[in-house]
Amino acid sequence: MPAGLLGIEELSREEIEAILNRAKDYQPLQNRSFKRLDILKGRMIVNLFFEASTRTRTSFEIAAKRLGADAISITASGSSVTKGESLVDTLNTLAAMRPNAIVMRHAASGAPHFLARHLPTPIINAGDGTHEHPTQALLDARTILDYRPSLEGLRVAIIGDIAHSRVARSNIYLLSKFGVDIVLCGPAPLLPGELAKIAPGVRLTHDIREAIRDADVIMMLRVQLERQHEAAFPAGEYFQFFGLGLEHLELAKPGAIVMHPGPINRGREISSEVADSKVSVILNQVENGVAVRMAVLERILG
Fold it and tell me: Would you put residue 129 in left (φ > 0), alpha (ψ -120 to 50) or beta?
């Protein structure tokens, strides 16, 4: 693994498996409070978020603290960035404080890669524009493996706003390395044809029923209104064609699971009945986020 973690695309299958296996050691056991470890004692991790994020930022903070590291979070809305300071100046200032790693989320695709070329500090990509969100794909894979013996031969349907989704891209890169049959589904403006070419084993459909038929895993995506430049679909109309309801689950394989990276828009992309049902593993994903990020931080800094 390079100094940091910029994306899934450049990781080998073996590197991914090592992180997923280590994350299993960090999964909370039932009825056990997690004791703080000393693995990263004396290390400092800076969380630098240029976009709002509750789940990912908190998850990285908890992961760092459980490993014994110090975590400092900076949100761009409250920093010198709003005063016009450039990205490079901000990062150089941070680097001068000698953190051991910088966890970074930015609205511009490629921002962490750009900084990784300029800074000696390892950078962990917590989401860059519409490009990648590597730790989300890792925690999604860890969650699937909690319910399935292997990723090999699974059929995964990814449904929603694929065009703007870094979660979809990272998942496509990861799952394709394990020979997963991936079906992408969404309205035509949100499902560009070139996505079929980014990895082997990917096909596209605009029919949610076709996407879900025989799926082992149904991965719903948020409609990213903040990134869309097209006219937005009315919520009711979007749900009618691309929302997941209980009636769809009969088409999937028995025992199929439903995932969502959050935050959920109930009634737009998923019904409350499905989100709160036994097939939903959405809260397991949140829980696995901490375990996976502990494994990533340990791998980069341990």
Answer: left
